[in-house]
Amino acid sequence: MYKRVMAVLCAASAMSGLAFLHAHAQAPAKPDRIVVNDSGGATQQANRKTFYTAFEKQTGVKIVNTSPVDLGKLKAMVASGNIEWCVTEISGPDAVTAERMGLLEPLDRTVIDLSNFPEHLRDRKFVFPKSVYSTVIGYRTDVFKDGGPKSWADFFDVEKFPGPRTMQNSPIEQLEFALLADGVPMDKLYPLDVDRAFKKLDEIKKHVAVWWTTGAQSAQILIDKEAVIGTAWNGRYYNLIKEGAPIAIEWNQGAIKESAFGIPKGAKDAYWGQRLLALMADPKLQGEYASIIGYPGANLEATQYTDPKIVPFLPTSPDNLRKQFWIDLNWWADNGAQVHERWARWMLEK
Q1: For residue 311, which phi and psi values (nearest 5 degrees)?
Q2: Do residues 212 and 168 make contact, with C-beta atoms less than 8 angstroms apart?
Q3: What HEC string does the chain produce?
Q4: Dihedral, 38, 43, 49, 54 alpha carbons, nearest 10
Q5: pTM of the predicted model, to two decimals?
Q6: Which whole-number Å values give the CA distances from 192 to 2, 145, 185, 344, in the listed order?
Q7: What is the tens place of the pLDDT at every residue in 4-16?
Q8: What percent of the chain has pLDDT over 90?
Q9: Which region, left, alpha or beta, applies to residue 81 given φ > 0 means left and ψ of -120 to 50 means alpha?
């Protein structure tokens, strides 16, 4: 009987592949449901098909979704003690801000395994790096039949690569791209030389036909031929490429960022939030997620479980990862407010 019981327990452990099954001798009372706040849309659907469904099957706890991501609402919840969310997505530098303001529960590293994540993400204490995405150069292959721009210097070279451009209406990344175009090495970008970046942006400004504000808009601009070269999140281009659109991605000097999740400080079902985040670190589920949406998890083993046809379109594939740089969210958390103000003034200038 003892051997039979041990065999069952070992089999269950192997199937789950998650350390949290052994981390607590006794779990707290199981709620009927927890609320997970994310960015909605296609990413929520992909989360539902992979992480959320797996969590519900594994724990018997239902996940109810809300959106959108909202740092202000997170602040208000924590301040009032009325915590609606068990887990929430947090955007960009807001993740650093949330951590600094004490808005998040510490990650339970006894159950959340980040050992196979990129080195600079392995010591996270409050913010879980759930997935990653890149802002990359895209161009129309029917316009540039011999190949498009291979760098930001090429992107800024309107004589060598003529035609209207599109870029995001945000200083984040645009400053980095301008500095790269001006010859700054990727590993020497930070701290950003803001004056130098804006001076370089002055050169390209009149050639930017559309400053996009949403992900859906970014890639569609190339389809509509409002621009022939642009920037977008890698998944936006991928979704059009797989449908046969005449677009190519250039990964060189792409800007990588992580999509972060965290548990609000004081969340009553934080234990179950920790279990969800632990499950989100699983490479097999991350591989399934990437196969659906084209945005990979941060676990570098996940590409082994991703549809091989999709791997070349992922920022974490070995060939693509080595060509890119990580956005320094700490620098933007420290300097973002004044840079955004300057960007708003710059956009109004002719």
Answers
A1: -50, -40
A2: yes
A3: CHHHHHHHHHHHHHHHCCHHHHCCCCCCCCCCEEEEECCCHHHHHHHHHHHHHHHHHHHCCEEEEECCCCHHHHHHHHHHCCCCCCEEEECCCHHHHHHHCCCECCCCCCCCCCCCCCHHHCCCCCCEEEEEEEEEEEEECCCCCCCCCCCHHHHCCCCCCCCCEEEECCHHHHHHHHHHHCCCCHHHCCCCCHHHHHHHHHHHHHHEEEEECCHHHHHHHHHCCCCCEEEEEHHHHHHHHCCCCCEEEEEEEEEEEEEEEECECCCCCHHHHHHHHHHHCCHHHHHHHHHHHCCCECCCCHHHHCCCCCHHHCCCCHHHHCCCEECCHHHHHHHHHHHHHHHHHHHHCC
A4: -40
A5: 0.86
A6: 62, 35, 12, 18
A7: 434 433 444 344 4
A8: 85
A9: left
Q: Which residues of 67-90 are buried (b: 16+ CB within 10 A; e: fewer)?
A: eebbbebbeebbeeeebebbbbbb
Nearest to 249 by CA among 186, 187, 324: 324
Nearest by Cα to 161 from 182, 178, 145: 145
CA distance 259 to 46: 14
Burial, 39: exposed, middle or buried (Cβ in 10 Å; 0-12, 13-18, 19+)? middle
Cβ pair 255, 177 in contact under 8 A: yes
What domains are there in the chain, each with its CATH number? Answer: 26-132+258-313 (3.40.190.10), 134-256+322-348 (3.40.190.10)
Q: pLDDT tens-digit profile of 67-79? A: 999 999 999 999 9
Dmax (CA) of the chain: 81
Long-range contacts of 183-192 (CB under 8 A, 24+ apart): 183/153, 186/253, 186/324, 186/325, 187/325, 189/325, 189/328, 190/328, 190/331, 191/331, 191/335, 192/331, 192/335
Q: Torsions phi, psi of 110, nearest 5?
A: -75, -20
In 3D space, the residue among 42, 47, 11 whose CA is nearest the CA of residue 286 turns out to be 47
Cβ-contact 17, 282 below 8 angstroms: yes
